[in-house]
What does this fold into?
Amino acid sequence: MFHDPTFNFTNKTILITGGVSGIGAATTLAFKRASASVIACGVTDQEIDAAKVNPDFSGIRVERLDVCDGDAVNRLIGSLASLDCVVNSAGIIRRLAEHDPKVFEEVIDVNFTGGMRVASAARPLLAKSKGSTVLIGSVMSDSVSKSRRYFVAPPCRAFALSASSRRVSS
It folds into this structure.
C-alpha cells in the first residue's frame, strides 16, 4: 500500500459527496489512510449499506446525502463543528436518455447544481479553516460524439466552480 507522509490530514475533517462508491470511495479511503476524519456520503440504500459493512470503511462516518436536497445539505453541513475540505464526487450519467429535457435537468441538478449547493453551504466552515473545495468531473467533457453531445456541460463544473472559488473568504 502506498503511503506518502506528506499526505497527512490528522485533525482535519473531510466531507466527500458520492464518497461510498467509485472514485469517491477511493478518495474516501485515501483520506482515511491520511488520518483524516472522513464523512462519506451516498444516496442509495444499496451503496450506504455496502459501505457500512465494508471493513475498509471502518472508522468512516457514512451518511445519506442527496445533493439535490438543499435542506438535507444544510442539515448535514450545519451539524459539523468544523470542515477542512469538501470533495464533490457525486455524479450521475444517463446514457442516451439525456436527450430528454427532464432527464437532462436531473443530470444538471446532481452533477452541477448539487456540487454548487454543497460548496455554498460549506463555504463559512471552509473560510474559517482556510479549507478547500475539490470538484470531481468526468473526462466526458472532453469527449463529444453523436450519442454524448448533450453531456458535455455538467462535468465542466470542476473547472468553472474551482476557478470561481479559488479564494474562499467570509
User: Anything to note?
Assistant: The two ends are 39 Å apart (CA to CA). The domain at 13-160 is CATH 3.40.50.720 (Rossmann fold).
